[in-house]
TrEMBL record:
Stated name of the protein: cytochrome-c oxidase
Compartments, record wording: Membrane
Membrane-topology descriptor: Multi-pass membrane protein
Catalytic activity entry: 4 Fe(II)-[cytochrome c] + O2 + 8 H(+)(in) = 4 Fe(III)-[cytochrome c] + 2 H2O + 4 H(+)(out)
SUPFAM superfamilies: Cupredoxins (SSF49503), Cytochrome c (SSF46626)
Domain Cytochrome c, residue spans: 190-284
Family matches, as InterPro entries: CcO_II, CcO_II-like_C, Copper_CuA, Cupredoxin, Cyt_c-like_dom, Cyt_c-like_dom_sf, Cyt_C_IC, Cyt_c_oxidase_su2
Source organism of this protein record: Methylobacterium symbioticum
Keywords per UniProt: Copper, Electron transport, Heme, Iron, Membrane, Metal-binding, Oxidoreductase, Respiratory chain, Translocase, Transmembrane, Transmembrane helix, Transport
GO CC annotation: membrane
Protein family according to the UniProt entry: Belongs to the cytochrome c oxidase subunit 2 family.
GO molecular function: copper ion binding; cytochrome-c oxidase activity; heme binding; iron ion binding; oxidoreductase activity
């Protein structure tokens, strides 16, 4: 059976050949003079205007796209771990959910995604939101829901037998309802406190505490700062750097230190690495963040921010019971 496009393609190619031969340079074909309006100045002006329009549209679209990746400073932070075949979410205050995500309306929410096994893709069609969750890597995205309701959550990367059943929902609530829902969740330690315990239990404090006899970098206040590495390179102490330093400590060795730290690959889960990262971020200092009207103080959920430091936030200090920070924390 002949493809329907073949006759049309043949007709176009035939016309091109006929016109190329009939009106070739030097042929006796009748050529009427061009209209007076078609001049060199007109062609130059039209071409310049077209180029300017193209560049303007390109700049406008690129600016809007780049701006969409800039997470607002007051965004509520949610950690998402994908696993065959479920979505596990945890807010910075410790509230955990499986295949559900509660968020307040008209509030920006930052998602930090990773995967425990294969590549998954976090997709909320109603929000035009899609971001891959990769094993052994962190990816980020953000959104701000503008209408309350329940919206479907899908995985759009084939991830195994039950890929089509890896479903969830995003529940967008009024700020007051969200605050009540949040306060009704089982109490538990926030990510920073979990990381604080892990920092001691896993032996990190034995090397990185200020009074340690082992020559290792002091991690207090390191978050967000440049770190000089061997070979003259500079790295920024962000979530990706912390994760790589835990799993691949020999790759980026801090200048002036020997590569003696063991790898924790296979010894720490993704959730534990997230908790340690939250704790190390809390060791830094940042200006206070304005509260979202109608919501609890979300300062501890804002990337780069931290509550006021206490002795329990210093590496090697004993863990103390403290009240968990107030809330966690959605742009279509």
């Amino acid at each position: 059976m002949i493809d329907r496009g073949v006759p049309w393609a043949s007709a176009v190619v035939g016309l091109i050949l006929v016109f190329a031969i009939r009106y070739r340079r030097g042929s006796k074909a009748d050529r009427h003079p061009l209209p007076a309006i078609v001049s060199r100045e007109f062609e130059i002006g039209w071409t310049a205007a077209t180029i300017f329009l193209f560049l303007f549209v390109f700049w406008w679209a690129a600016s809007a796209e780049i701006g969409a990746y800039s997470v607002p400073r007051d965004a509520i932070e949610i950690h998402v771990v994908a696993k065959q075949w479920m979505w596990k979410t945890q807010a910075s205050n410790g509230a955990r959910e499986i295949n559900e995500l509660h968020v307040p309306v008209n509030a920006p929410v930052k998602l930090i995604l990773t995967s425990q096994d294969v590549i998954h893709s976090f997709y909320v069609p109603a929000f035009r939101l899609k971001r891959d969750a990769l094993p052994d890597q962190l990816t980020e995205t953000w959104f701000q829901a503008t209408k309350t309701g329940t919206y479907g959550l899908l995985c759009t990367e084939y991830c195994g037998t039950d890929h089509a059943r890896m479903l969830g929902r995003v529940i967008v609530m009024e700020p007051e309802d969200y605050a009540r829902w949040l306060s009704a969740q089982p109490e538990g330690d926030d990510l920073a406190h979990q990381g604080e315990r892990l920092f001691s239990e896993r032996g990190c404090a034995g090397c990185h505490a200020p009074g340690s006899t082992v020559h290792a970098p002091d991690l207090a206040g390191i978050w967000g700062r440049p770190v000089p590495l061997e070979g003259g390179r500079i790295a920024t102490a962000d979530a990706a750097y912390i994760r790589d330093s835990i799993l691949q400590p020999g790759r980026d060795v801090v200048a002036g230190y020997r590569p003696i730290m063991p790898s924790y690959a296979g010894l720490l889960s993704d959730g534990e690495i997230q908790a340690l990262t939250a704790y190390l971020r809390g060791l830094g200092s940042a200006p206070a963040v304005a509260r979202t009207p109608g919501l609890p103080d979300l300062r501890s959920n804002v990337p780069g921010s931290a509550p006021e430091r206490s002795p329990a936030m210093v590496p090697g200090a004993p863990v103390q019971d403290r009240p968990a920070p107030a809330g966690p924390a959605v742009r279509p």
